[in-house]
User: Fold these one by one.
Assistant:
Number 1:
Amino acid sequence: MGFNCGIVGLPNVGKSTLFNALTATANAEAANFPFCTIEPNTGRVSVPDARLAKLAEAAKSASIVPTQLEFVDIAGLVRGASKGEGLGNQFLANIREVEAICHVLRCFEDDNVVHVEASVDPVRDAETVETELMLADLESLEKRSEALIKRARGQDKEAVQQLELVNRCLDLLRDGKPARMLELKDGEGRAFRMLQLLTGKPVLYICNVDEASAADGNEYSAKVAEMAAAQGAGSVVISAAIEAEVSTLDDEEEKREFLESLGLEETGLARVIRAGYDLLGLITYFTAGPKEARAWTIVKGTKAPQAAAVIHKDFERGFIAAETIAYEDYVSLGGEHGAKDAGKMRQEGRDYVVQDGDVMLFRFNV
């Protein structure tokens, strides 16, 4: 599993159309009215990685197994969601469950598609959603703060530390800034994640533009990119309409020609995945053999035993060593045996930090 992203935004910005296109399913009914999506639809897509095919060729693998990305299409949000307006409570509950937020913003004009705010302004729309999430976080932290204050008065050291973190988050939110902008001290990462703040999650703004703007964006997407940069968030330009058309094409050559005719080198899905990986600090390592060539997703900085655990917990528990070959060496030298003969296979231990593209074979004993 790669990671899961909740697709959020105001009603009628193209969330469900995008979800259908990205997952090539019709699970989410795309319709021109608010709250079309009620229950969160979940879809998984294979993460495109050209390296897998080359690995499979070198290893003479019978099959290829890419890693996957999960999208969750979450109900549209309106003003007052933090107080339960619209489907607010459900929206907030669903968004707590995802690792990252893909925030779809309408960056196109179309008189035939109703906008809940009656005009197109993606920065305003982003602030509407962000405000509701911040209000929900404020309410959550203020309740938590009351309990922590009582414990801190009783000289509970853990409560004192937690309260200090909560107060810093509250100061930031009251200043109109999302919790993800908080500068964490060493060792605070886990405690911050335990707060489960909605605005603490990484955000990728997806600018849904018209077909003519799919290659270079437009004035709306430019404003979103500026806003994202100021927040330390990511942004990507995509046309849900184009992705919907691409998803109906089965032939890869036909897809390529269609994209080229629009001045595009790749699908929006590929751009979303790349931006998402960068946002979450994710990398890919591989396993390859006669049976299959397979991709595995881990967080950058993960050590070998923990990377092995992604395959099976026993691999971590009984970890001995990781036989490791860099991707370029594996492919250029014709696979494992060629790399080993050339002295390019390394025996790595428990402290080895896995690198993107490593081809690994774990030795373990349980």
Number 2:
Amino acid sequence: MRSSNPVFSRRGFSRDNGYAGFNTAPQAGGAAVGTQGNPYATGNPYAQPGAGGNPYAQNPYAQNPYGQDVQHGAPQAPVATGNRMTMDDVVMRSAMTLGTVVVGAVLAWALLPVSSTSYGLAIGAALIAFVLAMVQSFKRKASPALILSYAAFEGVFLGVISEMFNSQWSGAPFQAVLGTMAVSGATLLVYKAGWVRVTARYARIGMTIALAFVLVMAVNLLLVVFGVAEDGGLRSMGPLGAIVGILAIVLGAFFLTLDFKQIEDGIAYGAPREESWLAAFGLTMTLVWIYIEMLRLVAIFSGDD
């Protein structure tokens, strides 16, 4: 089962014990590794069938994070850890990516007054950000330039729409930021406390709901564009729109749990440091999702004032 975030789509939920893994595949010596006390006995999560071991390794014996010979299950000398992803790497890259979003948003808010022109620029920035995100998602390796460019254009889009919402519902962006922080913090707390166990079944159910939600929203958009549904249809600014918005935020929290698990597994498995850029990219996309939905929800509950 693949992650909700396109950036993590190559890392599937595949370990036999139900936890999230990274394209985990049994290989020669896997059983012997398990007998040494490895809790992830299905083998190196970065191993690929037929690849002869870790694709990041310089040789088939170089990168097993648990110090085992992946070919024969024999102990080996500890490997160098200088190029492995750490939590500090993830935090730093996430701060850079989210900081770029914030800078782009602040500049757009300050330099682009509310008008039809700025709205057009926001749509253009959103489309460019989408294209950059898709390009990065299908690349085999992280491209910091692409990721930061995505963040910059996403920031322009968020800055313009935030200013538009603020002009009609004063303080809505600030409340949306607080709401996003609250949802993210609560999700992290629930995840770290073990109240949510990210398993293959959990991911399958959540992704089924998420795909159904996206499909329904796409159909709703078409109905609105062709005038079949009025006032935004399911995305109206009334009670129905509020229910849909709450569901979208819950789905955003679900995406965060998958992101947290992917990051946790990447650190545990000794993923290369460049993977921290992909982690930051995935978190940024999820947080942008939650912020936009939170912004709409704040506006709905604020009424027409």
Number 3:
Amino acid sequence: MKDSHYDVAIIGAGMSGLAAGIRLAHFGQKVCIFERHNAPGGLNSFYSMAGRKYDVGLHAMTNYVAPGVKGTPLVKLLRQLRIEREEFALCPQKQSRIAFGPRGETTLKFTNDFAVLDAEVAAKFPAQAAGWRRLVALVRTYDDVSLDAKPLSAREVVAQHISNPLLADMIFCPVMYYGSAQERDMEFGQFVIMFKALFLEGFARPLEGVRVIIRVLLDKFRSAGGERRMKCGVQRITEEQGRAARLVLDDGSEVTAKHVISSVGYPETMRLCGPVHTAEADANTGALSFIETISVFNRQPAEWGWGDDTIIFFNDSDRFEYAQAREQVDTRSGVICLPNNFDFGSDRLPEGIFRVTCLASYERWAHLPEEQYQADKQQWFEAAVRSARRFLPGVDDTVLAAAQVATDMFTPRTIKKFTGHLNGAIYGAPRKIRNGRTHLQNLYLCGTDQGFLGIVGAMLSGISMANYHVLQSSTRG
């Protein structure tokens, strides 16, 4: 028979929930993670189809630093979770670029060596070089992990240093696409987190993708004595005297816990607390969602001249608009990912993979009849791929078609179904709850809506909230 009382109950087996569980179990806490779906990983999971495994969410793991670099988020994460660096088997990117204009006429290249981007900005925007250096100096010294920092507009802060709107948009494009839940702007602390993660640190991935990271986390949690219940979601949190008194599970059974950590998002957690909190949840529900196309080829992308760039952030318009799509999909901007173009050494991916991500509208996908839904997926798959190919060396359509062996695409509807995120909002609520506190004394948030971004950020969020609300409080108690 399953236990019904825990020191800590964690809602959601995503990166932050798993990291929180590992940290707590290391210190003797009796921990159980409750996950509605059959696969762990949350927003960064994987699935199998026709014998192939596809990553969900992972273009690249940000915050990469070379061995020996001290004091960075990746190093802190490994130390706190007692993970050896080699276990993640991270392979660095080759290079990436930001490409603006109808066919990417203005570009900024960057690698895991910040000096490359620094030189690119100085060469392409010489009049902005001094302001750029001031902005970088501010980013380097800004306390982006403060739990009580006053919110600032990133657009306003950046505008104090960068006067050229094209350069400003080119800086914001990758940072927003990889972490912003807010339309057209970001909170400056979040901007700093992503700027460091992408530009001052960098990109990497394991050869086998995100399942390597998940496998390591599951092994650490299991070996530390943690319990995990899959296909076992939480349908309601019962409140008594200002505390989360009981968790009612999907099967109607109940469990109790001294502490509850929710990784499923702020509005989603508020809705678990009952109808009285619905308005509060709706007021802080994100509107930004995406589609992503995946094309699999029986040839390596390098054969078509696509072998240098790992990630390409593109925008074809005069200004970059990061906002909810007016149509089902906004193909004016997006992200191209070529997973083959990491430095895997003597290894390589067996097939060529080409992924395109664009902003999308949840409402325009959510309620379509199935036949219309499938037809629209095909239409927008082709539109997104066509838009993205403008920013790559040209390849004849018939050559690509002959080499293509599989495709898939997910929509905002897919995201909502498999993550539970309202509106299919991958980056969650626009207003983050940095200290993780809720209206209940023993219910805390971690993950997307606590505000540390990216895969490494999500894990650090779980660790930080476990330390701050459970381990420190037990020490004080």
Number 4:
Amino acid sequence: MPLALLALAIGAFGIGTTEFVIMGLLPEVAEEFGVPIPTAGLLATGYALGVVVGAPLLAVAGTRVSRKRMLMLLMVLFTLGNLVSALAPAFEAMLAGRVVASLAHGAFFGIGSIVAADLVAPRKKAGAIATMFTGLTVANVVGVPLGTLVGQEFGWRVTFLGVAGLGVLGLAGVAALVPRDERPAPGHSRVRRELAAFRDVQVLLAMAMTVLGFGGVFAAITYIAPMMTDAAGYADASVSRLLVLFGLGMVAGNLVGGRLADRALMPLLFTALAALSLTLGLFTFTAYDKTLAAVSITLIGAFGFATVPPLQKRVLDQTADAPTLASAVNIGAFNLGNALAAWLGGAVLAAGLGVTAPNWVGAVLAASALVLAVLSARLERRTDGRGSRIVASSSPAAGAARAVR
């Protein structure tokens, strides 16, 4: 394994920890600031929306500097945001810190995916991307449960100070291990090439699948703490152990997904999305049993993260000439799904539909992603086999899409 992949995984570990640890600490944060749980859920929503906004803006800015330097700048921004969260005197200040940290997220994974894919042979690209994302998934096995436990025992502020330290470690790893690359030539033509990727219908469909499929995961997981304590009857301290199971599922799904995506990308997506939708629907009922709830949480992590390497690889395959912006925006799409799901989950909770109601939201979102995957495959089969692509057209006479060579 190239050492640069290890460096990317270190950065991903820090980012994964700060993104997911808030879910286990929502009750503590809500209590300290005197806000209800659905309002505290905005810390997840705000982070996700920050990724959505920061991904394209910082990716475009990153086209003017080398990828290594941009990755280092992103880790600095991430560290500062977590320091703001740790020292926040009010809920609004913590929310601002979360947004600042999140701005680095999408561009880091977007640019990191390109770097990872470039380090290996073409037939191993999805596996390399999965290796980088392993840092994100391992964060859920080690970083998130440990951060949750520390936050419950010593206060959530200590957790976020620790996450800021992970940012410093990630910065050091990128600086030491990622190879230098040439600074890209400036000019508007490069930005135009990056923007042109969004005319490809397959790219847009992949991003929509990302939003809906990954949103299904977070409809349930964002509110896992109150769900497990109120429905399953777990003690507060058990939430960290349940998050370990979610993290183990993520690690397994990510690694298997990375391996299979290089062989059978679309069949993998069909299987993972169908299984995810079914598991989330059943979780509405299995959440009331401790054993079945633990199994369900593990499967949600596995099926959800099995979609990550294939979806990211699909975007890179469709945008080989100018992948930076599309790759970063697809990472933003993961987090747009997070934000949508966190908001919808909070809405059904606030409406009094029951503590397990967010699981139905997740099942519907994942099923919608499966429908788009089927549509994408059918459109792909309609191409003429000579490298043509279906791109969006603004011409009424051309319809919603047309084939171009």
